[in-house]
Amino acid sequence: MVRPPCCEKLALKRGLWTAEEDAKILAHVLKYGTGNWTAVPKKAGLKRCGKSCRLRWTNYLRPDLKHDSFTPEEEEMIIRLHAAIGSRWSIIAQQLPGRTDNDVKNHWNTKLRKKLSEIGIDPVTHKPFSQILADYGNIGGLRKPGTRIGSLNKDLRNAAMLKSEQSPSSSLGFPSIVSQVMLSTISSQNERTQDTFLRNNHNGNHSLDLLAELQAIKLVTETSNCIKKETIPLPIFVEDSLSSSSSSSLTCSTAAKEKSPPDLSWHDFLLDDAFVPADPQEQDIMAEHSSKKPASQKQDVIPQNETPCNEAAAQECAKAKGMEAAVPRNDFQPSSSSDISFLEAMLDQQYDMCLDFPNLLEEPFYY
DNA sequence: AAGCTAGACAACCGCGTTCCG
DNA sequence: TCGGAACGCGGTTGTCTAGCT
């Protein structure tokens, strides 16, 4: 392995920390506080780079950290936040006092992802595998039932294999199994949240997922300082904002509800964008162009000068690539004409891709 | 008892963002 | 305004350990 330049040049120590080194860091922080980590190794008498010291402090030595195992409540929180905002581990960790982003990330990768897969939930999309498989089979009407599944992610394929081994006659029919296992696994105490979780993960509309994700990021950012464990603003907003029914089982905190607008739509994320043309047709064109942007662009913050629709389009396009290219149009009821034009642009593009590259959809690729 | 394997967790790396002179 | 340093984040790799053969 290649060492980073600073460590290479100074022959700095790497690898696991000793108790003596930990003590030096602790003593230094007690004396000087945190900050200016590049100076810490010298001041504390350590042969480590400052970055290593900072990491050791933030991930392990901080006195407010919990070192015991994750509780079912914390696990449920991680799952739900991940469903809403993806792998923004630092944001998720902020909602779990005493946990670091590294903790959360490791726990997700080693336990939760597998747990979800085992009960038939895709840990990437947080949807039942059966639904993803069904959607995958419906891409543009091109895919026939029973065709090979090649581009699904590893977890999905592994779990699909597992399930088909366990019950060969119904490899596509485990939503009921999923529901039962979820009810006993995710959390044994909170049936109300389980129900919401399940329903939201079964609702099956990817566009709604994306909207929920954006809303969750917005809300988490806004309310991160006033959150208690019992009133965490769980990111289940889809029903609140887009559905007229079934409001009784929502798990948003009261505070969160008070802070969030009653009806969120795409417009809530359009922040005075001077580049958004008023003409819906032009918006469609822009959406189409922007969806061709590199998927590697950062999306942590919704930029002031860029339409979230465009960012969302790029993100949605990347997600849809391997997951579900076909979203039933009649499942979604947009709240404005720009919502319609955005969605139509996306759906039209997906449809065009299906027509242009049927071979791509027919030919699976493997990781 | 030795070797192998998988799980869990700690640490590292690279890149993007922010800060500051 | 610019460039470098510092910082933060997410993905990946390394290491240790328990369980199994």
Automatic annotation (TrEMBL):
Q: Which InterPro entries does the protein's record reference?
A: Homeodomain-like_sf, Myb_dom, Myb_TF_plants, SANT/Myb
Query: Where does the record place the HTH myb-type domain?
Result: 12-61, 62-116
User: GO annotations under biological process?
Assistant: anther wall tapetum development; pollen development
Q: Specify the Myb-like domain's residue ranges.
A: 9-61, 62-112
Give a Pfam family name.
Myb_DNA-binding
Q: What molecular function terms (GO) are annotated for this protein?
A: DNA binding
Q: Which GO terms describe its cellular component?
A: nucleus
Q: What is this protein called?
A: Transcription factor MYB28
